[in-house]
Amino acid sequence: MRVAAFIERDGLLNKVQVEHDCVITPTRLEDFKLAPGAEGLIGKLREAGYVVIATTNQPGLSTGDLSRRELDVMHDILLKKLNLDDIMVCPHDEADCCPCRKPRPGLLIEAGFKWHVDLDRSVAISDKWQDAEAARIAGCTSILIQSPWNGPVHHDFKVSSFQDAVTKAVALLDASGILVR
Ligand SMILES: [Zn+2]
Q1: 178 CA to centre of ligand 1 in angstroms
Q2: What is the CATH number of the domain that holds 28?
Q3: Which of 90, 96, 170, 180 could form a disulfide with 101 if both were Cys (CB 3.0 to 4.6 A apart)?
Q4: Using an 8 Å Cβ cutoff, are 144 and 157 in contact?
């Protein structure tokens, strides 16, 4: 079975605005900019054998602040420029009580079925606690990047940058000694 690296989208793969310690997700195409260095880091994960899947909560789809068409264009850009395997989206708002809005594990579990990946050997990389919690429930290893959004939840590793997170993820895969692609 293959293994996946689940990457939080906002702030890791695309730039975000931060206001009063809140992450503002881009809702217009002209505000959607790739994060510098992301392409090379995704390449390293893929070379190591990971299926690389971005995961993202986009409640603006439910509230009407973000159009599906606009998001689809953003994600086309992301898939092509960063060479991602997939992007999994939760389109719901908290009030929808869905199973896929992180910290719930629905996106990871769905991706596990879709891509036939072994969740126990997969990793989630994020600067937000919601991903570490979703990873814990799904049985993945979490690598949390230091940020104001780490929260008090369980995480397996904490690192200081996306680059360090990728180095850690690659090392974890080597340690398993299994060729996955
Ligand atoms: Zn959802």
Answers
A1: 33
A2: 3.40.50.1000
A3: 90
A4: yes
